Amino acid sequence: MTGAPELKAPKKAVSHSTLGRAQRWSWIFQRVSGVLLIGLIAVHLTVNLVMGDGINQIDFAFVAGKLANPFWQWFDFTMLVLAMIHGANGMRMIINDYAQTPWIAATLHWALRISTVVIVILGTLVLFTFDPCPAGSDPSLLPSFCEDI
Ligand code: HEM
Predict the structure, then answer these.
(1) Half-sphere exposure of residue 91, counting CA atoms within 13 Å on the CB side?
(2) Does the CB atom of residue 119 touch ligand 1 within 6 A?
(3) Can you give the pTM of this predicted structure?
(4) pLDDT (tens digit, 9 = 90+) per residue, 83-106?
(5) Most exposed: 67, 80, 92, 130, by fewest CB within 10 Å?
């Protein structure tokens, strides 16, 4: 066989007015989180890639300096949670539309749930347990405020 396997057409779309309560909230959440993510990611990319030295400024000291600031910790946390739920919710709908047997759908749904929870937990741990001044490191690689500690 050559090329990608043929994909069956997705199941028929239902009109928004016939959606159940949970599906309606999921529909609204995708739109609201999508708009919020555009703003959050625009700020993220501007601060990291446009302001200051742009991409050249990104090193340990830069990331450590940001993650030592509660504003950026909570900013990144909001972006992490919204992006992960938005992405997982979108993937859930794609699985519902394209999985061809209940067994495949259930397996993919569980893989998605587990990977989403693991990534949110690991990402949150990074944001709130990050040590900006690890003992014994070369001071030239650390943010300047580590000298005062
Ligand atoms: C070329 C593009 C990008 C670059 C250079 C970049 C760079 C970085 C850097 C340096 C950090 C460390 C902390 C911080 O700066 O706040 C970070 C964290 C993060 N970025 Fe990006 N980023 C990019 C695109 C994106 C996009 C498109 C998203 C989509 C949501 C994203 C989501 C995140 C999240 C959620 C974190 C926090 C991760 C954690 O530690 O839990 N980034 N990024």
Answers:
(1) 16
(2) no
(3) 0.88
(4) 999 999 999 999 999 998 999 999
(5) 130
